[in-house]
C-alpha cells in the first residue's frame, strides 16, 4: 500500500469511529485503539506534509489563536422560537396552526424534538466538506467561528456523501453535563466564578479566540435543519432528520413523529422527568409541523416561524426553611442579598443558598427570615426564592431590613436615584478588593495561577495588598510567612505574578474590572487605541466610535478613568512593569517581522521603558531576547549603569545600541 492509500484508509476509519463515538455514543473500538489510528495518521502526515488536507481528522485544531471573528450574513435569517409554558398554550398553538391552514378538524403531523440548551450554529458544507461555522448572532448576521466549530468532534469535517454544491445545516452546539461540571470544578479550584449553566459555558467557549482551548472544553452538537437547493431537501422534516443522520451528522435520537396535539403533549409529559437521565441539559420540547409545504403556507413573523413552538418544562420547585438573609459585596460594590436555606435537594443537586436579587424584590414578595419558602431551580445553577408560604409564617416574624452599612468595611451604603441596587462606594473596601483581586488574577484576566480565594483573603486581611499594584511588590519572604504557604509556593506565586507583567495589555484592561468591560470589549478597545493610557484619554464619542462598543461601555470606561484614584492605580501598575501598551510597529503590518532572526541582549536601565516593555517591543517585531552576550548576539541594548555585559560585547565585537538608537529601531520615537 502506498502512503497516500494508507492515509486515505486511516482517515476513513477514523471518521467512522469518530461518528460511532461522538455522534452515536456507541463506540466499536477502545480509546487506545482509536488513539493508535490517529497517531499513525499523524506520523504519516508528518512524513508526507504534501498529503495533508484540511478535512483530515488530524486538522481539527488549527495552529494558533485568531485575532477576532468576522461578521457574516446569514443567507436565510436564523429565527428564534415562540414559547409555550403550559398544555393549554400548546393546544392554542395547534389550533392556530390548524386554523391558519384552513383545516380546523385535522390531526396534523408534528415532529417533537428535545430542545437542546446550547447555542444555535449554522454549518456550511461544500461538496461534502465543512467550510464554515457561524453563530446565530442577531439572526441576520453572526460571527464566523469556523476554527472553533472544527474542534467539535461530533461535527464531521467531511460528510459521508460528497453532496454536490452547497448545503447549510443548522443546529445547536452544547456542552454535555459532564464537561460542564468538570469546567466548573476547574474554575472553582482556581477561584474563578463558575458558569451559571451549560449554555453560558458553551457560548463562552465558542467565542474563545484560541481553538486549542475550545477543543479542551469538550463541546458537542446536534443538528435539526437542512437548507439548500430544493432537490436536496426532503419535503418532510422527519425525512430531513433521517437524511441528516445518513450524512453522518449528529441528530438527537429521541425525536418522534406525532399525529395530533394529544400525542405531542404525551411526548412533553414523558420527557419532563425522563430528561434527567440524558447526558445533556434540555429545557423543553420543540414542536414542529412535519410537512414543509404546510410550513410554507403558514410562514413566519419577523421573529418566529408560525409552524413551530418551544414548550418549556416548568422549573423544579421545593419548600424549605429560610434561616437568614445575608448580603454579599461584589467587586463593583453592589450589595446583593441572598437567602441561607435549610439544605434541600432540587433538580438533582443540594441547595443551601438562593439569590434574592435586591431589597425591592424582597419587599415586593415580603420574604422574611424564619419563613418557609418555595424555591425554584430552573436553567440556571443559582436557585431562586419564589415566595414565602404565609400559612407557615411564625407569629413574631418581622419584615427584613436592608443593612445601612457595608458588612465588610462599615461604610455607609449608597443607592443612586432611580436604581435598585445598594452599593458600597468605598473603593478600598476589603470585600470589594477581594472580589476584584479574584477577577484580576482569574485565568481570562491576568492569569495568575495560585492566587485563589484563600490566599487573597490572607494578603488582604494582613494588609500586604491594598490594591492590584501591591501584588507586584509582594516578596517571597512575606508570602512564605502566610498560613499554608511554603517557600516553594511563595516562589511560584512571585514567578506567576512576574510573568503576568508581560501579558497582552487587554488582559489588564479586562482585569481592572471596569463595569461593563468584558474580555471582548477590552480586546476591541486595545486593538483600537493601542494602549490603556490612550483608552483612558479617549472621549465617550471616540470610545463609541469603536465597532461594537456601545454607549454603556463607553460611559463606564470614561467614568473609570475620570477617577483620580484609578489613574493613580494605572500609573503604579505601569511603574511596577506591567505592560499597558500593545506593540505596534510604526511601518504597519509590513514592519512586523523586521527583526526576525535577530537576537538582543539588554543591559542597564532604559529611561523610557521597562525591560519587559523593551522585550515585548523586540518580540513584536520578530526578534528574540536572551540573557547573555555571545558571538551570535546581534545587538546589545545599553541603558544607564550598564554592567559587565557591555565589556563582554566589546570584547566579542558585538554592536551596541544606546537608548535613542534602540527606540528608533523599534519605532518608538
Ligand atoms: S428549531 C426556525 N429545534 O432554541 C426554528 N431549535 O428558543 C429554528 N433549539 O434558536 C429552531 N433545540 O437555538 C430548534 N431541536 C431544536 C432546538 C432548537 C434547541 C434552540 C435554537 C433556537 C432556540 C429558540
Question: Which SSEs are present, and which pair or pack?
Answer:
Elements: H1 3-23, H2 31-47, E1 71-73, E2 83-84, H3 87-100, E3 109-116, E4 119-126, E5 129-135, E6 141-143, H4 146-149, E7 166-174, H5 177-189, H6 198-206, H7 211-217, E8 220-227, H8 237-246, E9 256-259, H9 261-274, E10 282-289, H10 292-298, E11 308-312, E12 316-329, E13 334-346, E14 349-355, H11 359-365, E15 372-377, E16 384-388, E17 413-414, E18 422-424, H12 430-441, H13 453-461, H14 476-480, H15 487-500, H16 505-511, H17 519-529, H18 532-537, H19 540-544, H20 551-562, H21 564-575, E19 599-603, H22 611-620, E20 624-626, E21 635-638, H23 644-652, E22 656-658, H24 659-665
Parallel strand pairs: 2-11, 19-20, 19-21, 21-22
Antiparallel strand pairs: 1-6, 3-9, 3-10, 4-5, 4-7, 7-8, 10-11, 12-13, 12-15, 13-14, 13-18, 15-16, 17-18
Helix pairs in contact: 1-2, 12-13, 16-17
The chain binds 2-(butylsulfanyl)adenosine.
Task: Give a quick rundown of the structure.
With about 675 residues, this protein is an alpha+beta fold.
Q: Which tags fit this structure?
A:
single chain, alpha+beta, Helix Hairpins, D-amino Acid Aminotransferase, Chain A, domain 1, OB fold (Dihydrolipoamide Acetyltransferase, E2P), 6 domains, seven-stranded antiparallel beta sheet, five-stranded mixed beta sheet, 24 helices, 22 strands, 19% strand, binds 2-(butylsulfanyl)adenosine
Amino acid at each position: 500500500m502506498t502512503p497516500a492509500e494508507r492515509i486515505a484508509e486511516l482517515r476513513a476509519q477514523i471518521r467512522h469511529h469518530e461518528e460511532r463515538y461522538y455522534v452515536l455514543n456507541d463506540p466499536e473500538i477502545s480509546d487506545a485503539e482509536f488513539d493508535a489510528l490517529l497517531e499513525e495518521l499523524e506520523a504519516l502526515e508528518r512524513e508526507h506534509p504534501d498529503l495533508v488536507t484540511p478535512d483530515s481528522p488530524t486538522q481539527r485544531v488549527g495552529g494558533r489563536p485568531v485575532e477576532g471573528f468576522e461578521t457574516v450574513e446569514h443567507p436565510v435569517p436564523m429565527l428564534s422560537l415562540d414559547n409555550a409554558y403550559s398544555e393549554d398554550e400548546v393546544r392554542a398553538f395547534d389550533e392556530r396552526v390548524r386554523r391558519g391552514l384552513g383545516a380546523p378538524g385535522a390531526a396534523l403531523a408534528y415532529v417533537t424534538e428535545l430542545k437542546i440548551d446550547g447555542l444555535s450554529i449554522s454549518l456550511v458544507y461544500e461538496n461534502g466538506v465543512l467550510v464554515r461555522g457561524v453563530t446565530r448572532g442577531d439572526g441576520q448576521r453572526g460571527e464566523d467561528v469556523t476554527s472553533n466549530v472544527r474542534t467539535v468532534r461530533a461535527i464531521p469535517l467531511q460528510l459521508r456523501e460528497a453532496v454536490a454544491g452547497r448545503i447549510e445545516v443548522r443546529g445547536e452546539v452544547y456542552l454535555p453535563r459532564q464537561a460542564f461540571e468538570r469546567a466548573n470544578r476547574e474554575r472553582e479550584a482556581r477561584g474563578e466564578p463558575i458558569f451559571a449553566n451549560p449554555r453560558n459555558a458553551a457560548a463562552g467557549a465558542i467565542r474563545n479566540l484560541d481553538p486549542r482551548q475550545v477543543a479542551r472544553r469538550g463541546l458537542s452538537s446536534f443538528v435539526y435543519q437542512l437548507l439548500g437547493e430544493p432537490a436536496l431537501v426532503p419535503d418532510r422534516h422527519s425525512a430531513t432528520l433521517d437524511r441528516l443522520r445518513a450524512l453522518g451528522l449528529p441528530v438527537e435520537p429521541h425525536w418522534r413523529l406525532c399525529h395530533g396535539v394529544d400525542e405531542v403533549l404525551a411526548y412533553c409529559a414523558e420527557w419532563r422527568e425522563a430528561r434527567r437521565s440524558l447526558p445533556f441539559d434540555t429545557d423543553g420540547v420543540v414542536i414542529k409541523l412535519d410537512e414543509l409545504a404546510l410550513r410554507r403556507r403558514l410562514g413566519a413573523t419577523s421573529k418566529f416561524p408560525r409552524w413551530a413552538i418551544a414548550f418549556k418544562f416548568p422549573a423544579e420547585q421545593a419548600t424549605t426553611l429560610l434561616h437568614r438573609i445575608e448580603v454579599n459585596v461584589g467587586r463593583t460594590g453592589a450589595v446583593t442579598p441572598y437567602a441561607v436555606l435549610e439544605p434541600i435537594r432540587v433538580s438533582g443537586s443540594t441547595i443551601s443558598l438562593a439569590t434574592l436579587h435586591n431589597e425591592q424584590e424582597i419587599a415586593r414578595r415580603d420574604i422574611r427570615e424564619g419563613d418557609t419558602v418555595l424555591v425554584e431551580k430552573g436553567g440556571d445553577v443559582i436557585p431562586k426564592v419564589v415566595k414565602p408560604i404565609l400559612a407557615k409564617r411564625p407569629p413574631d416574624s418581622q419584615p427584613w431590613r436592608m443593612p445601612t452599612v457595608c458588612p465588610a468595611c462599615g461604610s455607609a451604603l449608597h443607592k443612586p436615584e432611580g436604581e435598585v441596587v445598594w452599593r458600597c462606594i468605598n473603593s478600598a473596601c476589603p470585600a470589594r478588593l477581594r472580589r476584584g483581586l479574584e477577577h484580576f488574577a482569574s485565568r481570562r484576566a491576568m492569569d495568575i495561577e495560585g492566587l485563589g480565594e484563600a490566599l487573597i483573603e490572607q494578603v488582604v486581611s494582613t494588609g500586604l495588598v491594598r490594591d492590584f499594584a501591591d501584588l507586584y511588590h509582594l516578596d517571597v519572604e512575606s508570602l512564605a510567612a502566610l498560613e499554608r504557604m511554603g517557600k516553594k509556593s511563595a516562589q511560584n506565586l512571585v514567578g506567576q505574578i512576574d510573568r503576568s507583567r508581560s501579558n497582552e495589555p487587554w488582559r489588564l484592561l479586562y482585569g481592572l474590572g471596569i463595569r461593563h468591560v468584558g474580555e471582548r470589549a477590552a480586546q476591541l478597545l486595545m486593538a483600537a487605541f493601542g494602549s490603556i493610557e490612550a483608552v483612558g484619554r479617549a472621549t465617550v464619542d471616540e470610545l463609541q466610535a469603536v465597532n461594537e462598543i456601545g454607549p454603556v461601555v463607553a460611559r463606564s470606561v470614561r467614568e473609570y478613568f475620570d477617577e483620580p484614584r484609578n489613574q493613580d492605580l494605572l500609573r503604579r501598575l505601569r511603574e511596577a512593569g506591567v505592560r499597558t501598551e500593545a506593540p505596534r510597529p510604526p511601518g504597519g503590518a509590513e514592519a512586523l517581522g523586521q527583526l526576525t532572526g535577530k537576537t538582543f541582549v539588554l543591559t542597564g536601565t532604559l529611561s523610557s521603558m521597562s525591560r519587559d516593555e523593551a522585550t515585548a517591543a523586540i518580540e513584536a517585531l520578530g526578534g528574540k531576547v536572551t540573557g547573555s552576550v555571545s558571538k551570535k548576539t546581534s545587538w546589545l541594548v545599553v541603558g544607564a549603569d550598564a554592567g559587565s555585559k557591555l565589556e563582554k560585547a566589546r570584547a566579542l565585537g558585538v554592536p551596541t545600541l544606546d537608548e535613542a538608537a534602540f527606540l528608533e529601531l523599534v519605532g518608538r520615537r
